[in-house]
Amino acid sequence: MPRRKSIMLDEEHARILQELATRYGVTISGYVRSLVEAAAEAEERGFHAPSLIRRALLFEALARLGAVPVPRTLLGAGTREARVEGERLGAALRELGLDVSELISLITDRLGLGIVDYNRVLIFRGSKDPLVGYVVGLASGYGLRVVEREKVIVIELGHE
């Protein structure tokens, strides 16, 4: 069992932590552990954790409005160029040790390209071909299994 150390919190912050932990069905200790581990990972990668959370809030708000970050080179690109760009970015994310599954799920879900399941993404072929090419490229460049069928593309996210 890990050693524990008490820390002092303002009463208001302790109340907020209790509410958040209860919302997710975990203990305060478990919730704080998760926050600290995520913050440490962000800091190890050179990000200031509080700033990263604020940027994530902005990106999530944009995603809810149907806007997701894509490389500038994708603007005006055709399907083939978009796929190559996705492959390049997917390979880079893999080298950096970052999981591309969240990005694929976000783009697919928010832009209505298909259906996101826990361990796979089903993308419909259709009018948004450059974006489909980009997402498929991200997956294949990262090394995920991609199965292309006549009407749907299946990306296996690797979650078990």
TrEMBL record:
Organism listed in the record: Hyperthermus butylicus (strain DSM 5456 / JCM 9403 / PLM1-5)
Report the superkingdom from the record. Archaea
Know the name of this protein?
Uncharacterized protein
